[in-house]
Design a protein that fits this description.
With 327 residues, the chain is α/β, with parallel strands linked by helices. It has 12 helices and 13 strands.
Length: 327
């Protein structure tokens, strides 16, 4: 039997992961016995008969990580973070949540390991923002990490900590550099990358969307459906195949904003495209200019991670998963 803790369980990915695991009923090769969802706001309990505990709190507050780890969950998903734009605007908050919270969690696990030999699987969500210019057109698995934003720096430090704590045997960690997730349901968030979703989501719902960058901007995208699949697979994966390289870039679709708009036109017509208003934002443009455009993810593919086929498939998945999203 396996137990699971999802930190950030109230967010989009946390809720998607909780639903997928509850429906699946297994994790890490065993039956899933119970799950705990932790976030700053109460998470929604997924459908099904799996026992689910909902807890609220702030991981960066001393004592919270120890309290969560005391239950000794077999698999811990650490999804909680302050997103890129907010981390850049609020330096202290970004480091407190994204770095201090992560370190406190890792330290709580290490302390329990030293007391009892506890060694869980830890799945940590990282970001493409760990890479910075100069960048090749296609980034390979061995490209150096050189973040050029506070958020990217915080995630890169988390990756290094995860690799070292895993090397020392305190836990069995895997860091996932997720593509930018598109299309995110609900309201826009404070991420610098949020417009990649809003220029599709809002027009599909009959609303205006603001495009803060040029249409020639290219980026690496994945659907929420694919991202949840990555998280589930990371909980099952035999990490012995990864050796000491515990952080991995995941498959995505490399598209320009113009290609996104063209895919929207094919799905929803000219009327939807006309709802996109170009309003340049120098701050967003500056952040996005340091981000990578495409990756060679053969290592992730060899490890069994599978992504989306195209930007059209991403839009179709959104419409299938959120019936009524289109106007």
């Amino acid at each position: 039997m396996t137990t699971c803790l999802i930190i950030g369980g109230g967010g989009m990915l946390g809720q998607g992961l909780a639903g997928a695991l509850a429906a699946r009923g297994t994790l890490a090769g065993a039956a899933l016995e119970r799950m705990t969802l932790f976030d700053v706001v109460p998470a929604r309990v997924p459908d099904g008969n799996l026992p689910v505990a909902v807890e609220t709190g702030d991981l960066s507050v001393p004592g919270e990580a120890e309290r969560l780890v005391a239950a000794r969950p077999d698999v811990i998903y650490h999804l909680a973070a302050i997103v890129s734009g907010e981390a850049e605007r609020d330096f202290e908050k970004g480091y407190r949540i994204n770095l201090d919270g992560t370190r406190l969690l890792f330290e709580a696990i290490r302390a329990e390991h030293q007391r009892s030999g506890y060694c869980p699987r830890v799945v940590f969500t990282s970001s493409l923002a760990v890479f910075g210019i100069p960048l090749p057109d296609v980034i390979g698995d061995d490209h150096v990490v050189t973040p050029l934003s506070s958020y990217g720096t915080q995630k890169a430090i988390g990756e290094l900590l995860l690799a070292d704590y895993s090397r020392r045997g305190f836990f069995d960690g895997i860091g996932l550099r997720l593509p930018t997730i598109v299309i995110r349901p609900g309201k826009p968030n404070a991420a610098a990358s949020g417009f990649f979703s809003s220029i599709l989501r809002e027009p599909l719902a009959g609303k205006e969307a603001v495009l803060p960058v040029g249409t020639d901007v290219r980026h690496w995208l994945a659907s929420p459906r694919a991202a949840v699949g990555y998280l589930v697979h990371a909980g099952d994966l035999d990490t012995a195949a990864m050796g000491g390289r515990r952080n991995i870039t995941l498959p995505g679709v490399s598209v320009t904003v113009a290609e996104q708009i063209e895919a929207l036109r094919k799905v929803a017509g000219e009327e939807a495209v006309a709802r996109i208003r170009h309003q340049p934002d120098p701050v967003i443009e500056a952040i996005i200019s340091t981000w990578p455009k495409a990756f060679d993810t053969r290592r992730a593919l060899d490890l069994g991670f599978a992504g989306d086929a195209s930007i059209e498939a991403i839009i179709t998945a959104y419409l299938e998963d959120h019936a009524g999203a289109a106007s």
